[in-house]
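Many introductory courses stop at the sequence. We go one step further.
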Amino acid sequence: MLKYKWCICDMDGTLLNSKEIISKENESALKKLQQNGVEVIIASGRIDLLMKSFIKQLNLEGNIICCNGGLIKNITTGEIVYSKTIDKNIVKEIILYCLKNDIGFLVYTNNMVYSSKKNYKVENYESINKSAPPSLQIPIEYIDNSTVEYLEKVDVFKVLLISDTEDVKLLKDYFSKYKSLTAVSSLDGLLDIMASNICKGSALKILSKKFRMDLDKVIVFGDNYNDLEMFECAGMPIAMGNAVEAIKMKAKYVTKSNNESGIAYAINNFILNK
């Protein structure tokens, strides 16, 4: 029997390659872990609505950490285990700022993804919807100045800003003035905005406490700054070869990159063969 009971996987830059696909090697390795009694849990900046096909591919049935920890949800029952939303007035301020300054955005809620009309992320999701079966399609609605008032009626877990890398640094500084917000970069050109004190590490601690899981029995895979707190609390933090240096410094192992099925390499060499 393996010592580890949970395997937490970040998505972008970690589980997914640059084509936003879970490789067959990663899929096979994670299913080996499942066969050995290890529960695989996604911990992502995304919301579960954007991960339906990946959840199905890995046959996941338990809990998922979404929106960098702003939402913990049971993907089988739909139960919200934990959530912390952004103040509705501040959501409106953020979106009005984006509309005025031509900054792309996605707004994550429990049942819908709201988007600016033109950004590469939503164009990709619309393309996916054209070929996906209804059960795997992503629910998307567009927001502009005439419809921004609607956001006052919904609970928002995260706003993703989409801009040039240099602009993201300025945006982070700008929105960091709000004490009720957390702003963190997840990938180049992207800024995640959540409620204050939200991070994946805090969500992992909440989940482990609820299910009485010893964090020493948890494997974590990640690559970027929004994975840092998870690396600091998990027993087996493993950094991707493409990870930022801050993540590599906190890791017990550094595996191959996300484009080289680094998760599979680590599972087969650092976990199953130990």
